[in-house]
Amino acid sequence: MGISTDTIKKVANVIYNELGIVVDSNNERILGSKISTFLLRKRITEQELLSKLTDRNFFKELISIITVNETYFFREKEHIDLLVKLIKKNRSVRARILSLPCSTGEEPLSILMACLEAGVKIDNIDIIGVDVDENAIAIAKDGVYSYRSVSKVPESLKAKYFVSINGAYKVREDLIRKVSYRVGNIFDKSFLRSLGMFDFIFCRNLLIYFDRVKREEALKNISLIHKTGGYLFISKTETLLGLNVPYKREFIDGIIVYKRL
Length: 261
Description:
With 261 residues, the chain is an alpha/beta fold. It is built from eleven helices and ten strands. InterPro entries: Bact_Chemotaxis_MeTrfase, CheR_C, CheR_MeTrfase, SAM-dependent_MTases_sf. Its EC number is 2.1.1.80.
């Protein structure tokens, strides 16, 4: 099913306004293919799609085919190792950690496992995982992962924190319950404020999808719930240089992090 250029551009505009994601000319064909798949699944026409774009519940369904949930446990592990080190330096303080976007849960669970392996008491950390995709959050709450997702997990940790089920790997229930998952949007300030304040924020592999305007807006939004002196972790392929945001770049153990001013 070929999707018209007009439909693709209208959907792309809604995606930008709601999610901040820029769909450039290079990605319009990919978006068109995703829209086509969505229409076949829903058994609706292009016209019906366009008429429903302002329906919040309908758009939530559309999000699941737009967002990218390709991730795995212990991705860019040096960030997680540094986080654990910073937490252990200040053992007397209960650390609140936000993973946004948390995708299907690999990142917050990796953080939790690393903390436990380093001897951090489970009651001394609060981990919140947030993603705009309801389907991703449902997978995170279920806690069942493919071999690819756990490929970077050492065998000793697989044996300790996972149960093998029909070729898949299920995280221990007590660990799943320790992470609080929420469906939410980084551009929704009232939602973010409802989460409370955080010491550490992981916002990796999200900013690359935004233009400068949306990057600054997103970062200013999360700064509202980031304690002064707290640390922000972004992907190695991302940078805050040149952006007007309340963060200062620092090098700790050779790793770039951003300190909340």
